[in-house]
Amino acid sequence: MMKKEHGQVTGIIWRGSDDLAAYQQLKQYAENQGITVSAAAKQLVIKALKENTIEG
Length: 56
What we know:
mainly alpha; 2 helices; about 60% helix; two-stranded antiparallel sheet
């Protein structure tokens, strides 16, 4: 069994006011999409990586 740290959600540790604000945005995005916070985080990371990939 994996032990979560305080403030950890979906493998990400959220600490401080900036992190909390980002988490709240992520949570709202997830709710708007009708998906879990974990799924929203994964979706946004994949999108960001695709948009920022440098093709050689």
